[in-house]
Fold:
Amino acid sequence: MSARNWGTELDLSWISKIQVNQPAVLRRAEQIQTRRTVKKEWQAAWLLKAVTFIDLTTLSGDDTSSNVQRLCYKAKYPIREDLLKALNMHDKGITTAAVCVYPARVSDAVKALKTAGCTIPVASVATGFPAGQTHLKTRLEEIRLAVEDGATEIDVVINRTLVLTGQWEGSDFIKTSTGKETVNATFPVAIVMLRAIRDFFWKTGNKIGFKPAGGIRSAKDSLAWLSLIKEELGDEWLTPELFRIGASTLLSDIERQIYHHVTGRYAAYHDLAMC
Amino acid sequence: TLGIPFPNCLHLPQAWLDTQDRRLGHYVSGKWLKPEHRNSVPCQDPITGESLASCLQAQAEDVVAAVEVAGKAFENWSGLPGASRAQHLIRLAKMIQKHQRLLWTLESLVTGRAVREIRDKDVPLAQQLLQYHAVQACTQEEVLAGWEPMGVVGLILSPTFSFLEMMWRICPALAVGCTVVVLVPPASPTPLLLAQLAGELGSFPGILNVISGPASLGPVLASQPRVQKVAFCGAVEEGRALRRTLAGRGAELGLALGTESLLVLTEAADVDSAVEGVVDAAWSDRSAVRPGGLRLLIQESVWDETMRRLQERMARLRAGRGLDGAVDMGARGAAAHDLAQRYVREARSEGAQVFQAGDVPSDSPFFPPTLVSDLLPASPCSQAEVPWPVVAASRFRTAKEALAMANRTPRGGSASVWSERLGQALELGYGLQVGTVWINAHGLRNSEVPTGGCKESGSSWHGGLDGLYEYLRPSGTPGRLAYFSESMNYDTFGLAVPSTLPAGTHLHTSPHSSPTAPYGLFIGGRFQAPGARSSRPIQDSQGKLHSYVAEGGAKDIRGAVEAAHQATPGWVSQSPGARASLLWALASALERRESALASRLERHGVEFKAAKVEVELSVRQLRAWGARAQAQGHVLQVAELKGPVLRLREPLGVLAIVCPDEWPLLAFVSLLAAALAHGNSVVLVPSGACPIPALEVCQDMATLLPAGLVNVVTGDRDHLTRCLALHQDIQALWYFGSAQGSQFVEWASAGNLKPVWVNRGCPRAWDQEAKGAGPELGLRAARTKALWLPMGD
Structure:
């Protein structure tokens, strides 16, 4: 995490002055996916970089300590060792950025990571995820308990009732969505959010992080997200402190692409470890 | 940056070049033509300088042969049912689809443009163009009844224009039944490849012929007698020169000139999106409307913010080899580089701020994205066309000032307006004097939307219905033959006014003698004495003096044009309904004056019955054009755009008309009515032999029409024609007179590149529906503007 966002005086004129032209943003979103097609070793490098931004996530009702443990192990060893060796990246300590679980699974995750001997942070969705429609009191309590269990990052679902009625909240990171909505991380929405982050930085000097979540499944998608961050915010945002991708199945596709890059063959699912 | 690999793209174009032994000829009549004893020019990779192939340069005889082939093919092709032509175009679209990879890699390799733009935008658009025009060919008999294909079309392309510019023009030409000879600049293999793909369809080999040769062959192609229409894409000065060379040569000339575009950024804009618009326009290798630089007008209140965002964005642009999939900009060869460098150096010396950024290789053919600001309006760089990849930014205070600044340039290609305020965006969109306006977008194109320009950007259209009319003429019009006169002296034509002396007794002996004919020049809504203070006699059919008319001259023309300009804004802002009712009122006035007008015509040898018919037809014309004033423009719905594109028909401005001697009243009224119905204000020179009926009508116009809307100047026709044709502030000129006069008008119009319509000395049957009131008049009396209105929440 970067330095906290200590916030600033609420100035609603910032919001009222914002102009967003939807068709133009849609066009930009379309362009961004085709303008930076990287190939070969450049592609492999970008994919490895993408791995380090992943909040490896499991948010299922039937999560148990065993699959959380598996997830944590995968977070520590996201890409098969021999593939990394072939790329000469085996000693660079490539892990995912964090693991992300429900509050009740935080202690499982912390334990598993401790056993694996790594310092990957544990993130937890708290506060009545995914709707956020619970009382403030229980929401705060939920956060407190998750932190007690060892979570170092909390994905808060803001009270959207307040947002829609114009009462805003502040944060260190903003997320496109919970990943549980019908529409999740899309490029047009992300473009608007990233431009807001940049404006806020220009006005206050505070860097706010960004986390798209939900629906990012293919390696190609992840590259488009990276190029979007690079283009709209610049290289200084391409760090796990300021950029995360919330995903569960993305990692295996990236691993498959790396496999193909190294071996020249397409991998079967059983060639790669599950998470 | 050059180290970044691109997928194995190179072998495909290389292999194609190998099939020609790296020696490209011309593609004529469905086969490669490689004549002996021709010079050749190397086709080079613009980045490495490596020679890819050598290209044979055509000579005049090759051009003649190609036109011959196209002429033969025309006889067959134009006679086919539209549906058959449609089928052929669809087959070509499929052929392109099958070989698109070769097409885009070749184009990127030889032009240096980013392959991404060619692959994702240009090639799909080329296919879309063929498909759209196939549909048009299919419905031609029905929708375009009364029109026929012109014949052989000569298309001349300048080096900076992509193969897409060729597609924009050959598709409509082929669809309506014309055949084409394309002259491409040396070392442009892509058009040759396209011709080969078309040729390999087997049938109709001669409809598309591509020859490559030096610019000097342009006039040779254009003045071939079989060539009926010449379309030219290139620089303004080249277009001007071609216009002069082709005066009197017969073929109609359609010009698309210059490359600059304009972007107006208001304080109500989504600035980040507008910045992307700037990138699209200037730094993205998009072959938008014209591939050039950008003039950027920014409202003062958002100047700092915009500059910051723009500079930030520029730093993230990448230039590099076009075949690299991750570049924004390629290189455009040494000539474009030098042009940009000269402009920037000049701008710096004139005190402008120059900002350059981006990840750009430092070696020669690459030029970094460049932002020039604080240019003074009077500096030469402000006046000159902004070259690729330069953006010249200046600030404005109010929307009104933005409009004034934007329109104060001789160029009229394309522009975009960025504002989230609907009213303001539309006000600017309607007010800009350009061919295409995008609201909150830049560089969108679609085969259904007419794209053209005005002022020095040339008045020709491609796309949509307007694009089809470029290659059609009213059925039954005779072919255009050269009427060029060697003895024509442009310096002296109409220069001096022959002096006129009193010409004998002024008799009032006619049996139904009307009161004395009105005397004076009708300028600014009233009859005025001519500046020269002299008069010319008008004889009746027996050679007796009928009356005197005022001898107008250069100063009177100047006054008339000024008066017309003053009347223009008022007339343009009138609703079509109001225009219609004034034309109808004028029709009624003419009806009341019927006997007087008929007797005037009679004195000039028109039989009494015919004279009555002429007056009646004139009345009918006024009513017909009044009714048509209501039906202007329409809305287009294009595939990839949510929201409409408005096809507007806008007045030309001040239209000068030199009326024919035949049908002295009817022709005068027909031309006048069509011009007024479309919102123009006019300066007319009436029939030379019989100007009195026109002056009679002026008496009614004095009471009915706003002052200055219509101005009628009598006098020596050659002299007045000279004054009008050389006037820079007349927006269009129609000339019906002698062959010599027509030639002069075509030559002189090169000055401000005003569109001209000349009769080449041939009389017209004004009493016939097709010629007198036909849609041709309506087409020429207004210009098209496409206004793109993307919508979204």
The CA atoms of residues 55 and 98 of chain A lie 5 Å apart. Chain A has a mean pLDDT of 90. Chain A touches chain B at residues 19-28, 31, 34-40, 42, 195, 202, 230-231, 234 (CB under 8 Å).
